[in-house]
Amino acid sequence: MTDFHFDRRQVRHNFGRAAGTYEQHDVLQREVQASLIERLDIYEQTPERVLDVGAGTGRGTALLKKKYPKAQVIAIDLALPMLRRAKEHTGWLKPFSRVCADAYSLPVPDHSVDVLHSNLCFQWCDDVARLFTECARVLKPGGLLTFSTFGPDTLKELREAWAQSDEFAHVARFLDMHDVGDAMLTSGLRDPVLFAERYTLTYPDPQALLRELKGLGATNADSARSRGLTGKQHYRRMLDAYEAMRVDGTIPSTWEVVTAHAFGPPVGQSRRTEGGEIASFPIDSLRGSRRR
């Protein structure tokens, strides 16, 4: 589905390194997080287990625990240093658990999660078929998946500026909303709803944007990235190209945010694969079957 892949070890390294600076730069992340929390009102039941996948420093996890004080709320992140910082947001009265794990392999049983929440994490999972199959596995039938992710127009100005400097991949690439929606349907998730919004953040100069990206841990982890040092001339050409995009005295940066929700499929619902449709269900549900 994709013509690019992320280096998972590099993703873990980038976010682990940024654990101490993340909350100095997460203005957009907080804005999107607030919207996601509001969308949880479509789930009218009282959840028993809530996952926050890609929890980072745990701000969002604390909001989930506040909304669902009686639920078991679990913060999951690929980067252990992020989870260590998340301890600052878990209180004695409303504690949440912290587990270091990959979104591709969630450490919970099948059909055991009522609400699976993820704020601006899934963009680092380029294998969306595997990602949403895992989401469908852990969700209870009718359980809610709600998430946000970055779309392909994110950082388009920075990407264009680098393209005028050299041919290497310097900026992460992200999937189109339609590819995400198709993967959700293929995995068996029910009634997916997606929409995209564009935010334009402004900076005094390109270097300020680059510092923010590093502080967030959102630096390039594309497996096709150049492994060598970027030469001063290439870097200077990129800065000059970005300066030419200055508007009203500031440097613009586009962030395309895709927000979505869907529901867990009933046990045994078929899912599409390259070889056709596959359905799975417990053998005990086969009434009248004879065992020898």
TrEMBL record:
Catalysed reactions, as listed in the record: malonyl-[ACP] + S-adenosyl-L-methionine = malonyl-[ACP] methyl ester + S-adenosyl-L-homocysteine
Spans annotated as Disordered: 266-292
Keyword Cell membrane: no
Residues of the Methyltransferase type domain: 51-146
GO molecular function, a single term: carboxyl-O-methyltransferase activity
A UniProt-annotated Pfam family: Methyltransf_11
Enzyme Commission number: 2.1.1.197
Entry superkingdom: Bacteria
Enzyme kind, highest EC tier: transferase
Name of the protein: Malonyl-[acyl-carrier protein] O-methyltransferase
